[in-house]
Design brief:
alpha/beta; 2 domains; about 240 residues; about 25% helix; OB fold (Dihydrolipoamide Acetyltransferase, E2P); Rossmann fold
């Protein structure tokens, strides 16, 4: 088990900041009311203007956007094309758009008006899963909690030399110790800061910990970690050794 935290100590997998975009103020109010019932939603911003939503998206980091497709000043499709980070739940009275909506990977669900809380909640659960699978830990003071011997222990990611898959566990290797936690490497990888890099199906390394680069391996704390051919180019690109 691993619990990921941001630099302020918030649990990353549980906090969502939301934007509601709908030209109908009553729909905005209803969605905001629904959001107030969800503990994991930390803050809600609403707007009835598509153009204003673009300014908000460009200036604020939202985890989840409830987006009306039929806006008077700009279409929901235009906003979708500009949004690159947030999970999106479409809000529409056009059932046909539901089929087209899945051309956008950030769309996790759609709500057809009139809205009800049960259907809304199912969409939020999908958004939570999407966000959890795609959210990275910030590099600044990045931390996580691991379950070790019936207790949760905080570690700093910058002190981790590498992660190694061992059966159903991950070995978290430091300079002078190793701890095991129950988790799959593939589930951890998308959440890690950019100074970590997969180099092998069983290894993710801290790039700042590399001492020597060999052909087919790197040396970290006098240990040789294998580098498979499929990851070698990306490793070199990340450490800026490619011409």
């Amino acid at each position: 088990m691993i619990i990921l935290l941001d630099e302020t100590g918030n649990i990353l997998d549980k906090i969502m900041k939301c934007l509601i975009v709908d030209d109908d103020p009553l729909i905005c109010d209803l969605l905001e009311h629904f959001c107030s019932k969800i503990n994991e939603i930390a803050g809600v911003t609403t707007t009835v203007s598509g153009f204003e939503s673009i300014n908000l998206i460009n200036s604020t980091s939202f985890d989840l956007i409830f987006l009306d497709y039929n806006l008077p000043d700009i279409t929901g499709r235009d906003i979708l094309d500009l949004n690159s980070d947030s999970a999106v739940i479409m809000v529409t009275s056009n059932k046909d758009f539901a089929l087209d909506s899945y051309n956008y990977p950030k769309i996790v669900d759609f709500l057809v008006k009139p809205l009800d809380f049960s259907r809304f909640y199912k969409g939020v659960l999908k958004a939570k899963e999407f966000i959890s699978n795609n959210r990275k830990v910030p590099e600044k003071d990045a931390r996580l909690f691991i379950k070790e011997g019936g207790k949760l222990v905080k570690i700093k990611l910058k002190e981790v030399a590498y992660f190694k898959a061992e059966a159903n566990y991950i070995a978290i290797v430091f300079k002078n110790k190793k701890v095991l936690t129950l988790m799959a490497l593939k589930d951890l990888e998308p959440k890690l800061p950019d100074f970590f890099q997969r180099v092998h199906r069983s290894y993710i390394i801290n790039l700042n910990m590399i001492d020597v680069i060999h052909t087919g391996a790197v040396e970290i704390n006098k240990e040789h970690v294998p580098v498979s051919q499929r990851y070698a180019t990306e490793l070199l690109r990340k450490i800026q050794l490619l011409n």
